[in-house]
């Protein structure tokens, strides 16, 4: 394992020229869902109201600010809509209403908003152009995928490497198109350059780029697939998540398997060796049963949450991504988000975020664009801080 160094001096970032909206008092808000993209994050209140903070150069905060001013505290997304789920990509966000209608905002250079427009970005939520109703939605770096109530998969956006799964690479799609398969899925995870999904029986399928072996097919790293292809394993999974060039999945027995790029140790097996088929994560240092896993679509790390609410992370740990007081990578799971108990964790390039059972959001890592949402002056944080 690479030596990890305690962050005795906090790295400083500078945020200039901010037009900061006045946030509602943190004590008056409780959240039910969180998601993070590149240098920003979003959350839903228990009432379904969306708030975002951090980088805003492409309208990803959805606060109707065409100037692109970053925000170092949560600002309300400019809409009267109430949402049940929210998901963030590199610089776009999508959310679902109670009726299953999808809305997206932010960067739209490759059709990832699904609104059949070529404006480049939207600073407020716009409806995805479709009559379909979705039960879940997942934003990748520059594409988006969703599942209908029957488990049919649809994707839209960037498709150079086949990540839409419709068999029509490299053509981008500005409205939802059906993934070319008769399979029905229970969950879907759009990542930077690939997409994976689980059937109702727990069988994993992936499609898109295979640069680091993230499809798990056992093929060569350039062996991309533009339609769903089964992961090379007999294992059945309960949940699945994807990072930039890697994928991880959790079994019902709370065992984690990962595959793909392992440059920073994000597979968590104690090595830096890429894997084109699933390898078991070393969980010997974990106290308690693993309840969930997270490897954000722009992340080079993987984190898990136990049933006790403890966080453990592996992989890229610079900028304080693990929230454990250290600044460095790890090839095995180490305790993270020290000092807080969470029910959900999400990770991105340089940040981690945790949602507590009480509905409070904590953030840690880089703060160069206000990504921590704590209204502070741009200092990186190596332990969790409360989002305003």
CATH topology: Methylamine Dehydrogenase, Chain H
Terminal residue distance: 35 Å
Strand content: 35-45%
Count the DSSP helices.
Answer: 0
Gyration radius (Cα, Å) is 19 Å
Number of domains: 1
The percentage helix is under 10%
Describe the biggest sheet? 4 strands, antiparallel
Instruction: Give the low-pLDDT segments.
Output: 1-27
| CATH H-tier superfamily | Regulator of chromosome condensation 1/beta-lactamase-inhibitor protein II
Strand order of the largest sheet: 2-3-4-5
- How many strand elements? 30
Examine the secondary-structure arrangement and name the CATH architecture.
7 Propeller
Sum up the overall morphology in one term.
globular
Overall mean pLDDT: 93
Per CATH, the class reads: Mainly Beta
Order of helices and strands: EEEEEEEEEEEEEEEEEEEEEEEEEEEEEE
Structural class: mainly beta
């Amino acid at each position: 394992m690479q030596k990890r160094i305690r962050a005795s001096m906090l790295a400083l970032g500078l945020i200039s020229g901010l037009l900061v909206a006045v946030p509602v008092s943190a004590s008056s808000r409780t959240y039910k869902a969180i998601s993070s993209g590149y240098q920003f994050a979003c959350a839903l209140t228990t009432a379904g109201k969306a708030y975002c903070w951090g980088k805003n150069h492409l309208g990803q905060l959805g606060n109707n600010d065409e100037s692109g001013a970053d925000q170092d505290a949560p600002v309300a997304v400019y809409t009267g809509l109430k949402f049940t789920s929210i998901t963030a990509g590199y610089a776009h966000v999508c959310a679902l209403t109670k009726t299953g209608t999808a809305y997206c905002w932010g960067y739209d250079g490759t059709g990832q908003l699904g609104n059949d427009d070529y404006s480049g970005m939207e600073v407020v939520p716009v409806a995805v152009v479709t009559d379909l109703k979705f039960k879940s939605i997942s934003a990748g770096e520059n594409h988006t995928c969703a599942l209908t109530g029957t488990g049919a998969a649809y994707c839209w956006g960037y498709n150079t490497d086949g990540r839409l799964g419709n068999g029509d690479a490299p053509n981008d799609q500005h409205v939802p198109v059906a993934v070319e398969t008769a399979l029905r899925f229970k969950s879907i995870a759009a990542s930077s350059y690939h997409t994976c999904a689980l059937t109702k029986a727990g069988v994993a399928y992936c499609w898109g780029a295979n640069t680091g072996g993230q499809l798990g097919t056992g093929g060569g790293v350039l062996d991309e697939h533009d339609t769903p292809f089964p992961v090379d394993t007999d294992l059945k999974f309960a949940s699945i998540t994807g990072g930039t060039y890697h994928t991880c999945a959790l079994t019902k027995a709370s065992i984690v398997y990962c595959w793909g790029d392992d440059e920073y140790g994000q597979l968590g097996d104690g090595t830096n060796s890429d894997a084109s088929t699933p390898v078991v994560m070393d969980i010997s240092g974990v106290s308690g049963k693993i309840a969930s896993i997270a490897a954000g679509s722009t992340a080079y790390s993987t984190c898990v949450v136990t049933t006790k609410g403890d966080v453990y992370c592996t992989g890229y740990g610079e900028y304080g991504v693990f929230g454990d007081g250290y600044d460095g990578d790890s090839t095995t799971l180490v305790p993270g988000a020290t000092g807080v108990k969470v029910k959900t964790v999400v990770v991105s390039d340089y940040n981690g975020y945790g949602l507590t059972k009480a509905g409070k959001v904590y953030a840690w890592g880089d703060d160069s664009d206000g990504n921590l949402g704590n209204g502070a002056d741009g200092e990186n944080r190596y332990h969790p801080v409360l989002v305003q």
